[in-house]
Design brief:
The chain has 150 residues and is of the alpha+beta class. It is 26% helix and 35% strand. It is built from four helices and seven strands, in the order βααβββαβαββ. The model has no long low-confidence stretch (mean pLDDT 94).
């Protein structure tokens, strides 16, 4: 598994990855904004890095991470595994790759993320890596953080 740049060759495939069980990508999905929206957001807001999550030669997911100027913190802003590939351990394998990229950034002492309160699978996944609730609700989502030792 590796993180790959979103480029001319894979942007359209990335847009059509979806967490929707019916396989149809929408702008707003149950637990995450669409990859199309994330790609556009990364073009107009500074600090965001977008990557595909690839296993062998197959894109299986997407992530957007970096420095949030709005919140003045390092974040995993978006993270998804396509519905077809869920349940195979790809999410658990991808989180450390994303965390490693964030740890390389100057002054990254903590990583933040948020998830829908009813997304129990995501909450358990993040907690398995040591993320803890901050006690804050951000745009209706439970915020988590992980302190980074440098």
């Amino acid at each position: 598994m590796k993180l790959v740049d979103i480029a001319k060759e894979n942007w359209l495939t990335t847009v059509f990855l979806t967490t929707n069980q019916n396989g149809r990508a929408t702008i707003t999905e149950r637990f995450v904004a669409s990859n199309a929206l994330s790609i556009v957001q990364s073009m107009f807001e500074t600090g965001w890095i977008i990557k595909g999550i690839q296993v062998n030669d197959q894109l299986v997911g997407f992530t957007m991470y970096g420095y949030s100027e709005d919140n003045s913190q390092y974040e995993i802003c978006r993270f998804m595994i396509d519905a077809v590939y869920q349940g195979r351990g790809y999410g658990k394998a991808a989180i450390p790759l994303i965390m490693d990229e964030l740890k390389k950034m100057d002054n990254c002492n903590a990583i933040y993320l948020s998830t829908e309160p009813e997304n129990d699978k995501a909450r358990k996944l993040y907690e398995s890596f040591g993320f803890q609730e901050t006690g804050n609700i951000v745009e209706g989502e439970v915020e988590y953080y992980l302190m980074i030792k440098k």
